[in-house]
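User: My instructor asked us to take a sequence, write out its structure as tokens, and then describe one feature of it. I'm not sure where to start. Here is the sequence I was given:
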Amino acid sequence: MPSPILHLKHAQILAAEASLAGPVREAMASEITFARLGAIFPDLPFYTNIVPMTLGYWLELAAENCPVAHRMHSDHPDRFAWRFLALASEDRTLTRRQRLALIGGFFSHVALDLDVHPLVNWCARRDVIRFGGEESHHHRLAEKYHSLFFHLDHEGRDCLGRRDFFEERSRVLEEPFFFRLRPELPVVRWAANVMSFYGEDAPSPPQVAKWLRTFRHFAFLVSLPAAERNGRRLGHEAHRERYYDNDDFRFVDFWNRGYRRSVALINEAFEIFETNDLSPERRQRFLAAAEISDLAYPPERGLPPLSDRVRDFELVPA
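Assistant: Let's start with the prediction itself. The structure tokens for your sequence are:
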């Protein structure tokens, strides 16, 4: 997937997008915390425990097995997206603006996955061939560098290693918790209700709260000064050429496609929300137009065959 940090930035940019339906744009801007939650919603189940996650990253191990996260990305994500939209339309647990912000964030995530994830996968497979190692680890590196250089281009510096990232920019709950779980929060119960789509595998509110707490731990960890120093060390031109802008692809082209798709998806979802038309016919038209295929392995386009692009090069430590 694109990095959660990139998903958060993507939602922030969309919150000021003039071509979004006015009520959605206003909701995303005024309820940005809920927009951020929607923007990382499909990735929440990846945040199991910060200790093994961190050790796995530094030891270059394969990513943990997270069944619910894999199902959210690959087990009929189109049907889950409709479930998300339907509950946001009908369930009054949250306010109208909060639900609209969640819709905007969620469909921004879906759109970005569909257009950027093929590039992440391509980079990871390329580097397995070149370097060996675990594909999921190379996947994490590609995500990291895409986010790093995107922020460097848009803000002049990475957002990591900054106190404001932990205190504000990564906040996905109005009342974030770091130690004690808060499964009783309405938004946590709402999220668990959405995920009941997965039947026996569905998480309980306490489980959802644990994922949210681990995401808070993650945000704290990457806000430490060491993360900024690491970003400065890694943000050199060799890594930009390898991951971001080269003869084979320009990351910004993939992001732009995801941005355009985000606007179209969010506006279509808003129309359904506003009319409350949840009929089978409307569902079929929406899913056919949205083309929400496998979010983990969407169809690739605009990328050369790997067999033509794996060649000798100077090894730059990741």
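For the description part of your assignment, you could build on this observation: Residues 4-296 form one domain. Try explaining in your own words what that tells you about the chain.
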